[in-house]
Amino acid sequence: MPSSGVSEDSYSVLSCFLEHGSQVVHRSMGILPLKKVTIINHFRLLKLKEMFNSKFGSTPKFYVRAPGRVNIIGEHIDYCGYSVLPMAVEQDMLIAVGPVKTQTLQLANTDPLYPDFSTTANNICIDKTQPLWHNYFLCGFKGIQEHFGLTQLPGMNCLVDGNIPPSSGLSSSSALVCCAGLVTLTVLGMRLSKVELAEICAKSERYIGTEGGGMDQSISFLAEEGTAKLIEFSPLRATDVKLPSGAVFVIANSCVEMNKAATSHFNVRVMECRLAAKVLAKHKGLQWDKVLRLEEVQSELGISLEEMLLVTEDALHAEPYSREEICKCLGISLEELRTQILSPNTQGELTFKLYQRAKHVYSEAARVLQFKQVCEAAPDNAVQLLGELMNQSHRSCRDMYECSCPELDQLVDICRKFGAKGSRLTGAGWGGCTVSLVPADTLSSFLASVHEAYYQGNMSRLAREKHSLFATKPGGGALVFLEA
Length: 484
Ligand code: GLA
Known about the structure:
alpha+beta; 4-stranded antiparallel β-sheet; Ribosomal Protein S5, domain 2; globular
């Protein structure tokens, strides 16, 4: 294991882990000063260590944690090339790791819902037909293996403990992919920057079959406590966004589960955006066959997002496009559309909405930039303005992108009714969570009212409510640590 070369940007050094009141502090081999990091509950760690011991008959050598995230604004635009504005949440994936001398990778989970899994580390197969939990680990593992072109990988025992509600839009799966990537890197004693790790994990999560952008993996690695981040792509970078004081972000789970790898909804949207980009590019006389993302059309034309909205209105129609019409527009055969443009699980789609999807993407991209500008300028009515942008975002997700569901719409309405200045679905949608901007001085009455209106009286929601309705603040990114 590496022991020197401290860099704030990479994970070459394991941090010491010290209990300090209810907080955890870490120290990077005495070179970096003591620094507070995201809270890791001491009892959780002890329990994990004990379970590891009884499962594998040894003590973990190190631990890795990677957080989930809440996206404040900028939904379904990362895979179109546009910036997004998430923050890490406190909830995370935590893995206890013990390298072994054999080449067997053994995975276990503290949650009995997720069965043990074991495989040889040299022949990783990821089954796209079922999004089983261990496949997310394998994505991160394989991503690192492929990045370094390794044929032989050491085996290890891993015990995973996650407290991010699954299928809730808080990115539990990407947190597991990122955690596994960092576990593998650490076992190998190799070095990568956080940006490189984020890019590798974004790419390798696609082994599961979803065509996600890079938001979730980027924030899991690049997050810093106390600040949200504007994440830009190509090249990937993260800039601090100071959120307004006097207001808090509240997460509320609709309790409708949505696993984006289990249906084709997500990939259909990615493909609709891809097709919209191609049709717009063709309309404008650009070399459309190379274009994959809506952002590329804008940058090729060198015009503003507002102008792109006008181009969209001019070039696309609101009625859904049939496959035949798209083929005619682009001058390609049905076979070329299916095999060269569409992803495997969208090849059976008969119609695509291009106008609505492009309108959402260009307007949402503009809202992200406005949100950041308001945070920077911090006018007196900042909370009001930010809330309005969040409300517009939800309307666009609901009406133009069609990625909401009745429960999410109901929850957003309830949150606004009881004092949220803005409320919207967060993450992929079709279920999962909302995020609301709530004045800090009304937080407790807000939580009580939302509890009563959405959770009380519904047994299944009530049973999960403890982990479903909570205020959150920007947490820190992924971390490797030893026990002190
Ligand atoms: C999922 C994907 C992200 C992003 C969001 C929607 O979380 O993994 O890349 O596309 O959906 O904004």
